[in-house]
Amino acid sequence: MIRPHFEATYRRLSQDGKPILISGPRQSGKTTFAKSLLAAHGEGLYFNWDSHLDRARFVADPLFFRSMDRRQSAPPLVVFDELHKWSGWKPYLKGLYDDYAKDWNFLVTGSGRLDLGKRTGEALTGRYMSLACFPLTLGELSAGAESAAAGKTLRARLAEPFALQEHPNARESWAWWQGLGRHSGFPEPFLRGEETFWRRWSDSFAAQIVREDMQGLHELRRLDKLQLLLALLPSRVGSPLSQQNLAQALGVAFESVKAWLSLFEAFFLVFRIETYTRRIARSILKEKKYYLFNVPEVQDPGARFENLVALELLRSVTRANQLGEGRFGLTYLKNKEQQEVDFLVTEGQEPALLIETKLSQDEPSPALMAFQRQLGVPAVQLVENRETWRRVPNGDHEVLVVAAHRWMNGLP
Length: 412
Known about the structure:
Number of strands: 13
Mean pLDDT: 89
Structural class: alpha/beta
Order of helices and strands: HEHEHEHEEHHHHHHHHEEHEEEHEEEH
Oligomer: single chain
Shape: globular
Number of domains: 2
Strand content: 15-25%
């Protein structure tokens, strides 16, 4: 599948001239995108660590690309797919950058989180640029290449949160939104558009990650308990997660649950957001909320709707940070009076936009209005009803209540 918005983002990032590391969930389109770039580049090589033949060639000559018959003066593109599965990948990439970056273009993709500067003596920070490849979102589908190429920014969107960028075909936009909730944003099931296919795909997807990726890189014990934890998470989406309660329910140590959740994050099965505590009296400090990349696994309609919105916001915040537009964050609010708002987008650790999700409630949440009066920032309540759009006074402020698919259109 061609992803013009993602490609335009890649082009902007590649202007710095540094090699790029693309990471994201398995089957989110990284390899397809890399191969399309390679075809357009005209000259280069594709290397896949999962290929026995490619690994054999690499073992025989780690600098195998130098023997390529070059016909052009422009630097060839060398794609390394899933190289992170090799324990020596970081020092190897450091050496490539230091010795060959002037004469070769390098692109590295991986289905595990590529932490450039952690737990290694060979830090890659400053040598490579990071780019996240998310499953498809409505913001990406509706924006197209023009939005990314024109430099539309998250900061500009936050400055005018009540302005809607209506899609020319509202029916198509609504159909996309529904499809993302039913079939996920992973390209293959999304394009198939069949719930029966998504179920078959989803079972294989989770099994491959646990048994091939995780088990292949980590010596996992109590694999049955780990899989049970993964099966429990969809029912916990939208609520603060107690790791202690999960440990007791599973009959395992707290540290095991903590380690497994970190592993799920590293392999893009889940992502988490934390509470925002600055300027919030009696804020809850430690509770985190977890969401899934494979959204349709969440059965509760309200929690699934919240998960869809969370993924849209995470993609936009991550993209803005990786392009250097600012230092944005995605958090949520909860105090000891049990008032809660689903999301708070921050810039420079300061509140920028409050977002609440309600499946069908057109009246603004009392907690949303209370936190808006406290923080003095714009507030939006997203609902599923496709026609909703109203502005509700809240003291010196207003709350926008709007259909989620209308507000998400064109989110950078």
